[in-house]
Every structure is written in C-alpha cells, then in structure tokens.
Amino acid sequence: MKTTFRPLVLAAALTAVISTPTWALQPNNEPISPIPAAKVTNPAMVELGKKLWFDPRLSKSGFISCNSCHNLSMGGSDNLKTSIGHNWAEGPINSPTVLNSSMNVAQFWDGRAANLKEQAGGPIANPMEMAFTHELAVDMLNSIPGYQAEFKQVFKKDTINIDQVTDALAAFEETLVTPNSRFDKWLKGDQKALTKNELDGYKLFRDNGCVACHNGVAVGGNSFQRMGLVEPYKTDNPAEGRVAVTGADADRFNFKVPTLRNVELTYPYFHDGAADTLAEAVDTMGRIQLGKKFTPEENAKIVAFLKTLTGEQPQLTMPILPPSSDKTPRPEPFAKK
Amino acid sequence: MKTTFRPLVLAAALTAVISTPTWALQPNNEPISPIPAAKVTNPAMVELGKKLWFDPRLSKSGFISCNSCHNLSMGGSDNLKTSIGHNWAEGPINSPTVLNSSMNVAQFWDGRAANLKEQAGGPIANPMEMAFTHELAVDMLNSIPGYQAEFKQVFKKDTINIDQVTDALAAFEETLVTPNSRFDKWLKGDQKALTKNELDGYKLFRDNGCVACHNGVAVGGNSFQRMGLVEPYKTDNPAEGRVAVTGADADRFNFKVPTLRNVELTYPYFHDGAADTLAEAVDTMGRIQLGKKFTPEENAKIVAFLKTLTGEQPQLTMPILPPSSDKTPRPEPFAKK
User: Fold this and answer.
1) pLDDT by residue (tens digit) across B138-173?
2) What residues bind heme c 2, as annotated (chains A, B) (predicted)?
3) A271 is in an annotated binding site
4) What's residue A336's pLDDT?
C-alpha cells in the first residue's frame, strides 16, 4: 500500500474490519463479498408490502408513495439532491437507496432506525415527507375491503395496525437486492467479467483504502464514519449525522457509510447530494477521507470499477391497488393545514 | 323504454347512435361492445414508451412522470379531485384515466388533442403539470446513452426529437386496454358472468338512457355532451369544456363523455372530481342529464353493474430507466423560476 493513512483513517479502517467478519471469508480474500439472491419466505406478505410500497394513499396528499423517493426504476432513489415532500417541501437530506438496504447496520443516514421495520413508519408520519399519521394511515387501510382481506390473510387478525404495515413494507424491502453484478461474477471466479481497466480501478479502490469503509456484501452500509476525516467537508447542509441519535460529540458528522452497490444509478452522492457525478464523488472522497489526490486516469479507473457494482435490478410487476370504498377518507392535497 | 326523454337528450342520443356504428353490431344487440385485447405491432417502441411513461426526468423537477397523475396501479388515474403539478400546483381539472384512452374520440376533457400522440406532448410543457419544455426534455434524453441507443434502434435516426417521444408514449398507451371485464364476458354470452342484481343494474342503465352517451367499446369517450342537460350542473370549477377549442357558444359546458370502463377504480368523478362515490355520480347524472331521480335500490343496482366494467388491468413490469450521464442536466425542483 502506497497511501499514507492518517491515524484517524487507520482507526476507522480497523473498526470496519472488526465489525465486518465477512472480510476474511471471501472466496478470493477480497474485502467485498457477493450479494446473495433474496430468499422469500412469506410471499403473501411480500406482495402486500409491495402494494403498500406503491400506495400514495399512505400520504396525506394521496400523491406520495414510498416509491416516490425510492424509485425502483431509478436505483431505488429519486436522483435528486434532496427529496420533494408534502406541499413540495424541500427535504433535509439525500434519499438513500432502498436497494440492498436490509444489509445496512441501521437505517437513515444517522442510523436512527435500527432496522427496516422501524424505518418504514418514519416517512409516513414526517410532515416534510408523506405528512400523514399512523392512525390516519391505518384508518384508511381498514376502510378498504381489498386491504382488509389481504391483511387478514397474511396476519390472521381482524384489524389492521401500523405494526402489520411496517412488517409488510420491511418484508417487501428485504427482497430488493441486486445480485449478479459484474463485480460479483468476478468475485465468484469469472475472470472475464471485468475489463483490465475495471480491475485496475478495483485495485486502486482497494489498495488506496476506500475499502476501509466500503466493504462487505453491500460495499458499505455497515458502519458510521466521519464525513471529512482528513479535510473538513464543506456543505450548507445542516445535518450533523450520528450525534443526533447518540448525543455524543464524537459522533458529530459521523454518517452511515452508504452502500456503493448500484452507485451508477443512485446519483447525486453524499448526504447532501452535492456530488452530481461519480468522478466528483471519487475525487472528493479521496481528498477528504484519504488525503489522496487521484489523477484523472486513476479517477476514471475507479469510476469504471464502481459501475461494475450495478446488479440485477428487481423485476417487479406493478401492483394493482385495491380501490377505496365509499367510507375511505379522501386525500387532501391542498388543505390549508 | 319508460323514460321520458327531453328533446335535447334525445338529440344527444341520436348523435351518439349515429357516431357509434358499433351499436348495431353487437352479438346480442347491446349498445356496449367488448374491448378487444391490445395488439402490439412494435414491441420495441412500446417498451421505449413505457420507460418514458415512468421517467420523471421528463419534468422540470425530476419528480413528476406521466404515471404520477395516470397511475397504472390505480386505474390509470390519480384518484384526486384535480392533480398535483410542479411546485404543488393545484390542477384545473380531474385527470382522466389513460386506460382504454386510445378509444376516445379525442383527448383531454375538451378534446383539444386529436389523438394520444398529440396529447402526450401537453403535460410535459404545461407549467402547472410537468413544467418542462419539449426542447429541454429532448436535450435530456439525447444526453443519456441508454436512451440514445434505444431510440436509434426504434426510429433509425441519430438524434432524438419530440416527435419520437410522443410516438413512443402513444404506442405504449395504446397497449393500456382492459379486456375481459365480467360485463364483457356477459356480452360474449357467459350468462353466469353477472348476478341478477348486476344485470338489473345494466337494464336500468340501458333503459333509462345512460347508454345514450355511455355506449360503444369504452362505454363513453366517443362524443362530447353538455354537462347539465336537464338541470344546470353547479360547480366552482371554471372549466367550460369544448367551447375552449371550437369557440362556439353551443359548445359551452360540453365535455367529452368519460369512459365508464374501470369506473370503480377512477374515482372521484366528473371533470371537477366533485363526486366522491359511484352512488353520488349516478344520482347526479340521473338528475342533471336525464331528469330522473333513481331510488336508492335503483342506484345500488346501477352501481353494482358499473363495477362489472372493471377489466383486466395491464400487467406491467416496472422499467429500469437508463441512468443519466455526467452531461445530463440535473433537475431543479426548488429553483425559483
């Protein structure tokens, strides 16, 4: 390794290694492991979760669904710096991809939700996002015969509650994995899966220390790290990261390391969405996290490697949502408060 | 027929009959004919059109796609009184369903677009809807290698233009038909496809004159008629209908008769979206168009019949959109003008 690691970086790298036992388990000793295909154990719950995922009636306006900001046609993201919420609210932070999110150590950039189920309830009730309440969402669902029947079939209860809603959403999200990227094929031994240029890019990525944080099955997502380890990260975005959850000053500007799976599709990058392109993101990361200025050639090679992390996207048949009944409260997109 | 037709209604009925030769051609002499399945002649163009349909990059914000207001999970509509557009603009009129829209005599409530191709360019450039321009939309598409290749394959040209975009969108929309509703099965001779209650509802619908306007393959969509024939329709909605296109005073409050196919899914009803339920819509229509007050029993039977018009919804695999390149202009959802 030619890179001079700063002590903080090394510490971060070691933490990552310790919390990522997969590192040592790879077939060819690489710090990244292939994504396994999703195992669907409860297809009825997954199907119900898919309906909820695409149902804008979970928002006050009847217009915003989970898929609005985590669009499964666009890498599970909205490709916006920060998202658009109820009443065109400008979101505070970049929407992370839902793809492979089951592999994250926790959910949200600051990790304030322990898992997908806990996360799923957040946006529904966030006044800047779907602007609904759990109570209203559940009332809506209970008023729809098609949902009543489907929830009953899945959960064996007569009444729908928010716990069932978030369980079903999480079950669906767990299926949103992207196996068989070209890089995974290479990891599994297919030497022809990558070009020399891409493999050079991977070696630069690995040997310059990017893998200190971006490792494991999701190439990230498994630790919190400081944004601006070597050099401060300049941004107008007020988010302070993990400190909002732990209250610990040491966690200020610590954010969950994003997965790099499908990173070609999940632009723009960083918690503030400030980097429009992979080239820019690689340049900034090298500089502020590793104290390294990649040459244009190195940068291009790393970008070429990153594009090999695009896996098979979930093939989804759009659900047909059960219609509202006469009793279903109608959405109020233009209500003044 | 027991209904006393008012002269205007009769005239309307006759016009409809004359412009709907299918009336006389039905296997069992009914004024409604079954929907044939879609014939796909150019699958590559349809597939491209599907991508465009779901692509929010055709809007200024990068957030609004065709599917936002004509949601194929919800009967091809948004189930809102009027739609939400760029910057949360309150739309002027209820979004009609895209399902079976190829059967319409013209597009939009006032028929200002002759066909689907002509319609498709409208919302993209409407400042209250997608708020983009055709030029910017085409620049965006031309900057994306995946689209470049796919357009070239379909249209055999090196450069993408708006004509190709609307051609592809229209080709996709033409596939969005909903055959094999229970009513169509009955029309084709399956006597068990309807319950007695539903069949009674159909006879009420037919024999009270609803079929004067709601006839043909789409159960509507094939003529313009005055909203408030017998009794004025009261609404705060300023739309004046067909007069906006023809300038003829006789066309004031003439609107395209909406299709009743899948009407169970396309609530709320009327050009102003004022009727939340089918019961309300049937009641209002009977009163203001036919001068008829349906009893609650009659109303319920007609509603039961209308629900048999729900056909097989298009089974769509969500497209995976080609990612933007470094050169693709980024959407500006929060730009001040």
Assistant:
1) 999 999 999 999 999 999 999 999 999 999 999 999
2) 210, 213-214, 285
3) no
4) 76
ipTM of the complex: 0.91
DSSP letter at A269? Answer: B
Q: Is the pLDDT of residue A7 over 50?
A: no
- Asked whether residue A161 carries a pLDDT value surpassing 70, the answer given is yes
Average pLDDT of the residues in A203-210: 97
- Whether A116 maps to a domain, the answer reads yes
Using a CB-CB cut-off of 8 Å, the residues of chain A touching B273 are none
Q: Has residue B334 been placed in a domain?
A: no
- pLDDT band for position B337 (cuts 50, 70, 90): low
Q: Would you call A90 a catalytic residue per the annotation? A: no
Picking from A75-89, A117-131, B6-20, which range would have the lowest pLDDT averaged per residue? B6-20
| Chain B residue whose CA is closest to A52 | B73
Q: Is residue A17 over pLDDT 70?
A: no
Tell me which residue in A79, A316, A331 faces B318 most closely, judged by beta carbons: A316
Which domain, by its residues, includes B154?
A: 43-174
Residues of B with CB under 8 A from a CB of A: 54-57, 61-63, 68, 71-75, 78-81, 84, 87-88, 90, 264-265, 267-268, 276-279, 313, 315-321, 323-324, 326, 330-331, 333-334
Domain count of chain A?
2
A337 located within any domain: no
Is A320 within the bounds of a domain? no
Q: Which residues of B are annotated as a binding site?
A: 66, 69-70, 86, 210, 213-214, 285
Which residues in chain B touch residue A331, judged by CB atoms under 8 angstroms apart?
79-80
State the binding site of B for heme c.
66, 69-70, 86, 210, 213-214, 285
pLDDT band at B19 (very low <50, low <70, confident <90, very high): very low
User: Are A209 and A292 in the same domain?
Assistant: yes
The closest CB to that of A333, out of B56, B84, B264, belongs to B84
Same-domain pairing of B287 and B228: yes
- The answer on B220 and B154 residing in a single domain is no
Which CATH number covers residue B86?
1.10.760.10
* Of A30, A90, A129, A264, catalytic: A129
pLDDT band for position B328 (50/70/90)?
very high
Co-location of B130 and B210 in the same domain: no
Instruction: Indicate the DSSP class of residue B242.
Output: T
Residues B212 and B281 in one domain: yes
Domain match, A223 and A245 both: yes
Integer Rg of chain B from CA: 21
Q: Which of B174, B190, B217 is the last residue of a domain?
A: B174
Buried b / exposed e across A219-232, counting CB within 10 Å, b at 16+?
Answer: bbbbbbbbbebbee
Answer for the pair B301, B205: CB distance below 8 angstroms, yes or no.
no
Higher pLDDT: A46 or B9? It is A46
User: Do A25 and A69 belong to one domain?
Assistant: no
* Cβ–Cβ below 8 Å for B90 and A319: no
List B226's β-bridge partners, or say none: B254
Q: Which residues lie across from B269 on neighbouring strands?
A: B275
Residues B141 and B230 in one domain: no
Q: Give, in order, the Cα–Cα distances in Å from B262 to each of B214, B223, B258, B310, B311.
A: 13, 19, 11, 4, 6
Q: Which of A113, A141, A173 is the last residue of a domain?
A: A173
Mean pLDDT of A295-316: 98
Contact state of A80 with B331 under an 8 Å Cβ cutoff: yes
CB within 8 Å: B71 and A84: no
Residue with token string 């899948």: B262
Long-range CB contacts (< 8 A, 24+ apart) of B132-136?
B132/B58, B132/B59, B132/B60, B134/B162, B134/B165, B136/B60, B136/B329
